[in-house]
Amino acid sequence: MHTTVPPETGQAQSTERTVVMDVLNITKNLPLGRERIEILKGISFQIRSGEFVSIVGPSGSGKSTLLGIIAGLDNPTTGQVLIDGVDITRMSEGKLAAVRNSEIGMVFQAFNLIPTLTAQENVEVPLYVGKHKGSPSARAQELLALVGLTHRLDHRPNQLSGGEQQRVAIARALATDPAFVIADEPTGNLDARNGENVLELIAQLRTQTGKTFIIATHDPVVASHADRTIRIVDGKITEIEHSNGSFT
Amino acid sequence: MKASMYFNYTSRSLLRGGLRTLLAVFCVAVGVMAIVALQLVGSMLQNSLTSSTRDTNGGDIAVTAQSVPFKASDLSYFEQLKSEGAITNYTAVMSANGSLSPVASPGTSGPLSPVASSSQSFSVNAVDPNNYPVVSPPTFVTPSYGSVSNLLTRNQVIITQQLSTTFHHKVGDIVTVYIKTQAGSGQTLHVTIAGVVADSGVFAQSGNLMLISAHDEQAAAPSTPASYSTVYVTTANQAQTDAVVKAINQHFPLASTQTVAGALQAQQSSIDLISKFLEIAGLLALLIGGVGIVNTMQVLLSRRKTEIAMLKTTGYRRVDLYVLFGLEAGLLGMVGGIIGAAAATGVSSIVRILMQNLGLTVPFQLNPWTIAGGVAIGLVTALIFGLIPIVQAANIRPLNVIRDLSESRGASSIALTIALLVVLSVLFCALAIVILKNDVVLGIAAVYGAFAFLLVLSVFFGLVVFVVSKLPVPEHFDLRYLALILVGMAASVLLYLVLPVFGILLFAASLVGIVIVLVPRTWKVSTKMALRNIGRQRTRTTTTMLALFITASLADRR
Ligand SMILES: Nc1ncnc2c1ncn2[C@@H]1O[C@H](COP(=O)(O)OP(=O)(O)OP(=O)(O)O)[C@@H](O)[C@H]1O
Ligand SMILES: [Mg+2]
Using the beta-carbon criterion (under 8 Å), do A68 and B6 form an inter-chain contact? Predict the structure, then answer.
């Protein structure tokens, strides 16, 4: 549904593509002792279908907090996150779970695979809730083939290398065919070579699937692959850089 | 498909839990074992008493002369009943008191010396060897193939095993017995012990008893007319019993009758009391096992915080997690229930052997329903007590996948825990009532009594944990810290006067407070970390302490 325009040709016409995520003036405060700390201080941006957006910024600037909010894992103190025009910040548990299941795939620095399940079973996990067509195991095998792990279907996470684990995690994120893949430092736990491999995989998947990727990272290489880079410092957006060189 | 995936996930998570899982299974198994074993023992007791009551009663009806003994002429009434077919058989017994002469020297034929204490006296029953007992024949210890009619011949007697042990007499011994009947006449007999019978069946409640032939007794005192104290009657069925009892009561208004049903009724209330007691003991064990389940499942699930948050991130709702973790608790409970029921069978067969050694005949029935019931109890218990950890785990926020959030301590989470405790106690109460065979009042009293006790304990431990988690780890002595230690020591002395163990513990803790200032920095840092960790997981630490305390105090009692 969001895959109408191939991303390669999309950059120049990005303004014409549909807005699939609208982040409106997000703030996040947390109590710390007697005071409240402001982690996010009013963040707004839009993401269009098929875009690859990176979020960068110094450590502690609020990247992970922001990702948690746009992925529906956390509530903002104020502000809204609209996905396809629907606000996900004030949803009931059931509806939000359905959004997380069908619209959003997530990838983390620490992979977060379920240690007791095999690679294939890990990819099947999201397919056992919500409504999905076809056989979960066939879908999992297809995705693991896509990330080049056909020979590792029955391995447990502790029998896989870091790079392999992250590929399983990426396959899992794609399992329900979501519109968004949201990743928090996906290369953070990998060495340079494995990081590069995962990044190539992401770029390749983006071409093949046309999904929207939002990736928080410290890694300048990751950021260089993105169509747009949103820079956050101290809970505020300081600049948005387009890969064609223009700034906002 | 989905089911097999859920099962895989559940069983592997349990395997991964390792020792903790084993501990939880053990908790269930011990509770189930207690309940099933105690139930089995209770029903064995019941069975053994029901089947043996007729024997113990001596017949379907025991007719006992209260003040005036039966004379030989009275027996003709029973003879008539027998010939009419109103009863199937009867036998009359003369009762007397007997005592042994310490030395059976030929010179002394009189009564025992006055030194003889009452403990040396015993009952003597003179019976008709050819027609006694009218119920199941007794079991002979020696000779193994003995019978009353063969052994009770000329001046030979049979004694119960208890008498044999009390007086250290065995088969073949010749003793001098002084026999004194109720009527007052006394006589001395020289007799040979010909047989020893087990204290079971007709002799189950006889105690120290010597059986002699009525013929021998009569021969010793030919001048005294025969007087019988009890007539034992057998009938063909209950209807006959009821009719005959009426007739006998009319014919002998001064005698009292005891039927099997009557004897059972008298014992039934005490059996009921015993089996209720056993069941409550089992329930308490189950409750304690339940605390163990709460604790181990809390630990098992909180270890998997990130994993659970990840499941939520991929779209699992609370209900989905209830199913997953409910399956986990159910599997735990089933395995524990099977082990517990198997162990209970073993325990009750040991009890059976012990009871048989005590001379009780115990018909052993391995009821498949008891085993199935045990497994069901394990399953239900694990689910009931799994409720708290399961709901808590399903409440883990998905954000935990990004950062480790400490357990929430808001008013709502406290309210939730209290609500869950209430639900748990109601469910457990329902289980208890079922186990206690619908005794509602007893079930409620037992469960809430135990709950109140556990609650008081956990509030106490909760306070201790709270205080411990707030303890300072200072870099050097300052006034406030010294004051704190002094207060601690003073309190420990006062506590020592009331609860010595706790006083010593508090004193030791205060001493540690002094020592901690002097230890190297790295130690201080780890101590601080340990204390803060306790503070982060207060409920968990409290239930752990509770479980440990109960286990320790139970072990102590043994
Ligand atoms: N639950 C919390 N309690 C207190 N402070 C918090 C909490 N969550 C986040 N913070 C603070 O909010 C700030 C932003 O955190 P966040 O994890 O979003 O940063 P980040 O940009 O992802 O950093 P990094 O690049 O190191 O991952 C940090 O200063 C952090 O200390
Ligand atoms: Mg981060």
Answer: no
In a domain, B259, yes or no: no
Indicate the helix (H) or strand (E) that contains B28.
helix B19-57
B167 and B316 both lie in a single domain: no
Domain count, chain A: 1
State which residues form the domain around A230: 7-242
Query: Is the Cβ–Cβ distance between B351 and B45 less than 8 Å?
Result: no
Specify the number of domains making up chain B. Answer: 3
Distance from CA of B283 to the nearest CA of A (A): 35
A chain contacts of residue B395, beta-carbon cutoff 8 Å: none
pTM for this structure?
0.71
Q: Kindly determine whether residue B402 and residue A93, on different chains, have CB atoms separated by under 8 Å.
A: no
The shortest CB-CB distance from A68 to any of B5, B6, B399 is to: B399
Ligand closest to CA A183: 2
| Residue A193 to residue A200: CA distance in whole angstroms | 11
ipTM for the complex?
A: 0.91
- Are B153 and B242 in a shared domain? yes
Domain that holds residue B352: 3-49+269-438
Ligand 1 lined by A60 (C-beta under 6 Å): yes
Structure confidence at residue B113 (pLDDT): 42
User: Could you report the per-residue pLDDT of B349-373, keeping only the tens digit for each?
Assistant: 887 777 767 656 565 566 677 788 8
Residues B35 and B76 in one domain: no
Q: Output the domain CATH number for residue A224.
A: 3.40.50.300
- Spatial neighbors of B206 by CB under 8 A, at least 6 apart, are B123, B160, B162, B199
Tell me the pLDDT tens digit for each residue of A82-129: 999 999 998 999 999 999 999 999 999 999 999 999 999 999 999 999
Look at strands A19-32 and A78-83 and give their pairing.
antiparallel
- DSSP assignment letter at A5: S
Please indicate, yes or no, if residue A15 is contained in any of the structural domains: yes
Residues of A with CB under 8 A from a CB of B: 64, 67-68, 71-74, 93-94, 97-98, 100-102, 106, 108, 110, 112, 114-117, 121, 124-126, 128-130, 135-137, 172, 176, 184
The verdict on whether omega for the bond into residue B474 sits within 30 degrees of 0, i.e. cis, is: no
Report the separation in Å between the CA atom of A40 and the middle of ligand 1, taken as the mean of its atom positions: 10
For ligand 2, a single-atom ion, the residues with CB < 5 A are A 64
Q: What tens digit of pLDDT does each residue of B306-331 get?
A: 999 999 999 999 999 999 999 999 99
State whether B317 and B275 are in the same domain.
yes
- The verdict on residue A2 lying in a domain is no
**Helix B2-17 to helix B318-357 angle, to the nearest 10 degrees?**
60
Q: Is the CB of A62 under 6 A from ligand 1?
A: yes
For residues B78 and B166, membership in a common domain is answered with: yes
Domain-embedded: residue A1? no
Contacts of B12 in chain A (CB under 8 A): 116-117
Structure tokens at B52: 């043996």
Q: Is residue B340 domain-shared with residue B241, that is, in the same domain?
A: no
Structure tokens that stand for B281 in this block: 């003991």
